[in-house]
Design goal:
mainly alpha, 3 helices, two-stranded parallel sheet, globular, 101 residues
Length: 101
């Protein structure tokens, strides 16, 4: 797992969980990070079938792993593993009632 952080926030936690941590390389004038430098850095660090991006407030369930494995199997079956492709997901809000906070 690779994480790009703004101003080192949550750096210690990410390192504790074994993630590779980097400073966000560049921003626009409004402070929004540019994705391309982050993707390029991710691709420099290791070969993978999938590279992705998610905001830090998004939680994933087991379905993501199952979906990616199914896509990988389909790509292998069709012998198209070298063709670039884009996967887009849709966020679903989940309201959790808790006494934790």
């Amino acid at each position: 797992m690779i994480v790009f952080l703004f101003l080192g926030l949550f750096r210690a936690m990410a390192l504790h969980y074994g993630w590779k941590v980097f400073q966000i390389p560049s921003f626009n004038k409004y402070g929004t990070p540019f994705f391309l430098p982050m993707f390029n850095k991710s691709m420099e660090l290791g070969k993978s079938i999938f590279y992705g991006f998610s905001n830090g407030d998004i939680l994933f369930e087991d379905g993501l792993t199952e979906t990616l494995l199914a896509i990988k199997a389909a790509l292998n079956t069709c012998n198209v593993t070298s063709i670039p492709f884009l996967i887009i997901g849709q966020r679903r809000n989940a309201y959790v009632k808790t006494d934790m906070f």
